[in-house]
Amino acid sequence: MPLFSHTHRTSSSLPTSGSYSSKLLKPLKPSSAPPTSRFPLPILVFSLLCFLFGLSATIFAVYSLRRPIPLLSFRCGRSEDTFRAFYSSSRKLGDHGALVERPKHLGFVGIQTVFGSVDRRAALRSTWFPSDPDGLLRLEQATGLAFRFVIGRSKNSKKMVELHEEVEKYKDFMFIDLEEEYLKLPYKSLAFFKAAFELFDADYYVKADDDIYLRPDRLATLLAKERTHSLTYIGCMKKGPVITDPKMRWYEKSGHLIGSEYFLHAYGPIYVLSAEVVASLATARNNSLRMFSNEDVTIGSWMLAMNVHHEDNRAICDPRCTPTSIAVWDIPKCSGLCNPARRLKELHKMSMCSKSPTLPPDDR
């Protein structure tokens, strides 16, 4: 509000006209308001930065709490263990034990299967292979062996859709990065061992076909035996003439590299490789290993080159159930069981196959 002065001053600053001025003094211009108490600019900037930092930290904390915990992938490239992926997503394995990326086992057993073997897998799940994830987990804990069906992929979208429906139901597959093709079985075996080694930490890796009857408890007893050789190749060993006639089954296209008779190697329906052997295969460069037409011959040739110990065990190629049989199949009539979907169920009904006691290691 303007201030008006009504006093007469005789100060030298007033006009010296000799008489008092009758005019009102001009109002003084309001001076700028005295500075109010305010924070210095640096303090304001610092306070603002602290506020923004605190706000961002709060938002991040809320987001972290609301964000779902990332799931373990259990993958190696395009290879995947659907069983552990299922337990990871459902968090159910916490009731049974720790869920780790590469669990330790006595052995990993890959049951090789194909898209057209739905009836075989169904027969296996109704016999020695558990038909639900919890049963598969119990078998793993009881034997120290992990079991999965092993399969590649297909460009046929219908086949893949049907397979994924089966995967969703049973959760018992391991996918490998390979196009399924019968003529490329050696490549499938190599892809299997590479993926199995990356996904599982096992003392032994077992390749088995989906048309044999297996006793998991007896297989575990076999693998638990003490061995002096770290490079071990276990199977039903054989030799025989090389088939060079293209019209005959088991034709060997590269037979000229072998000669008239095969070297000692295991039958293909089931064999075992120790961890050090598989580690060497897993780190082998692509195209550095020779591939023959037949898968069992191919594996046998690698074993010769790697200087492994050949352990011949006839209990894993028994044509009938006995007190010592580990794997039963119709050798040499069929490569596996003849009519496996039916024979698997027949064998399981026999007490000698499914209920006879497991013998101690020294009796095998």
Total count of strands: 11
Task: Report the end-to-end length measured between terminal Cα atoms.
Answer: 113 Å
Helical content band: 25-40%
Count the domains: 1
State Rg.
Answer: 39 Å
| CATH architectural grouping | Alpha-Beta Complex
Low-confidence stretches: 1-25, 67-73, 93-98
Strand content: 15-25%
Shape: globular
EC number: 2.4.1.-
Protein name: Hexosyltransferase
Family: Belongs to the glycosyltransferase 31 family.
Keywords: Glycoprotein, Glycosyltransferase, Golgi apparatus, Manganese, Membrane, Signal-anchor, Transferase, Transmembrane, Transmembrane helix
Written overview of the protein:
This protein has helices at residues 41-66, 82-90, 118-125, 133-143, 157-170, 185-199, 216-223, 275-282, 295-305, 340-348, 351-354, and strands at 75-76, 79-81, 104-112, 145-153, 173-179, 201-209, 213-214, 232-238, 265-274, 309-312, 327-328. It has 364 residues and is of the alpha/beta class. Strand 1 and strand 2 form a beta hairpin. Mean pLDDT is 84; it is low at 1-25, 67-73 and 93-98. The chain has eleven helices and eleven strands. The chain has one domain (80-92, 102-353): Spore Coat Polysaccharide Biosynthesis Protein SpsA, Chain A (Alpha-Beta Complex). It has a nine-stranded mixed sheet, sandwiched between helices.
